[in-house]
Each structure stands twice: as structure tokens, then as C-alpha cells.
Amino acid sequence: MQSLDPLVFIAVFQEMLGPMLWALIAVIIGGTTAFIALLLKEKHIISQRLVRSQLVGVIGGVLALVLMAKVSSSGFTDAAGPIDWLVIACVFGLGLIGTTILSYTTIGWFVQRNASTSI
Fold first, then answer.
1. Phi/psi at 80 (nearest 5 deg)?
2. pLDDT at residue 102 in the model
């Protein structure tokens, strides 16, 4: 393999995740867009909401590890080298970050919608 082709990665992820790949990509794009729109609307990050979202993010990190174990042919007991543990840590970290952003955005839009209707 002399060059890095993004289509190879898409094919591998499509084989591993099936149709769930496209649902995850849609969630990533939609969540990121909603997060940026929320930041532009509020003009700052609310720390109390961020702390709550980080707690939810830990659950998302664990769920990312569960998803990784389901779609791969190896389990956590097969991790032998440092790169295996680095990949496990990265999967947990990406699940934590993604879930934190999604929950922050969901809470932000939901609370604002309720606050504007109760006034």
C-alpha cells in the first residue's frame, strides 16, 4: 500500500458497521452543526451545562467501547501491545467527546425552548 486512500477506510467502516455507519455520520454532522449554531446564538459556553454533559459523556465513552467490541473480532482481553491500548483509549475519548458535545447541544436547545415558552 503506497498511498492512503480515504475510500479504503470508508469501505472498511462500511463492512464493520453496515448501515449504522451512515447514521453515525449523520449524527456527527447534525450534532456539530447544532453545536456551532448554539454557540453562535449563546456566544459563550455555560459551565454548569458543560459539567452535566461531561458526566453523560463518560457513559458515551463506555458505549463507544461496547460498540467497538461488538464490531471487531477481538475483545479487550486480546489487547497486548501499547498500540492496542492507545486505540482503546482513543475510542473511549472520542465517544466521551462526541457524547459530551451532543448532550451539551441537546440540553442547550431543550432548555432554551422551555424557557422561552414558559415566559
1. -115, -45
2. 95
